[in-house]
Write a structure and sequence with these properties.
Helix content: 40-55%
CATH class of the largest domain: Alpha Beta
Order of helices and strands: EEEHHEEEEHEEEHHH
Number of helices: 6
CATH superfamily of the largest domain: Metalloproteases ("zincins"), catalytic domain
Number of strands: 10
Low-confidence stretches: none
Strand order of the largest sheet: 4-5-7-6
Structural class: alpha/beta
Bound molecules: zinc ion
Number of domains: 3
CATH architecture of the largest domain: 2-Layer Sandwich
Strand content: 15-25%
Length: 220
């Protein structure tokens, strides 16, 4: 198996499957290449399984904006209809509708639509959930992060949330918002922090799992 080797000051060897389905192995400086190969080979079935999962997600996000393509919104897939209706600058009802003429601009139009929905829903949930948790934030910032779903800046009181989260189910969005709001109480990820989170989101673990498994597909 081919892999990229990174040597570092560490004791253990780890294997990571990257977003492009390539393999990165991190190993101690002095570990012989032969032993690293042997280690990687011993994990072969796990690596192949993970690679397949990533490849499946990559194929899902290679967009051509064609009639019948599916787009996620709040955890559900909606098909795209390409129409001759020139006024369809990306309409949404039970499906997305886009004028054939505007297909070259589809990516921009989708992003704009998602950001508008994200801004509206996130602002509303932030207000509602901050009242429940009894914390104060100053403003919402929309980011485009794909690994970093949210963050909180204590200095400015800003909560940043990735607009891509609007593609995730509502409970996952709520989890990320609750997570960031709880950082106002507890800045780190200590046990105390998770004790606070679980008070407001009893199912937070399933949302973390959802993001881990589906995060890569929150892309257009
Ligand atoms: Zn955090």
């Amino acid at each position: 198996m081919e892999y990229k080797l990174i040597r570092a000051k560490r004791r253990s060897t780890t294997i990571q499957i990257e977003d492009d389905a390539t393999i990165t192995v991190r190993a101690p400086f002095l570990m012989p290449k032969l032993l690293i190969d042997r280690f990687v080979n011993s994990k072969k079935s796990w690596v192949l399984k993970k690679q397949q999962q990533v490849q499946k997600q990559i194929s899902l996000i290679k967009r051509t904006y064609s009639h019948g393509d599916n787009y996620l919104y709040l955890g559900q897939n909606y098909p795209l209809k390409i129409t001759n209706n020139v006024r369809a600058k990306l309409l949404f009802a039970d499906s997305f509708e886009l004028a054939e003429l505007l297909r070259p601009k589809a990516k921009i139009l989708f992003e704009k639509w998602y950001k508008t929905q994200a801004n509206e829903l996130f602002a509303r949930r932030l207000t509602e959930l901050s009242a429940v948790i009894q914390v104060k934030f100053s403003k919402l910032h929309l980011s485009g992060g794909i690994r970093r779903w949210g963050s909180y800046s204590p200095r400015s009181g800003t909560i940043s949330l990735s607009w891509r989260l609007i593609m995730a189910p509502k409970e996952v969005i709520d989890y990320v918002i609750i997570h960031e709001l709880c950082h106002i109480i507890q800045p780190n990820h200590s046990k105390h922090f998770w004790d606070v989170v679980v008070r407001y989101d009893a199912n937070y673990k399933s949302s973390i799992k959802w993001l881990k498994n589906n995060g890569r597909s929150l892309s257009i």
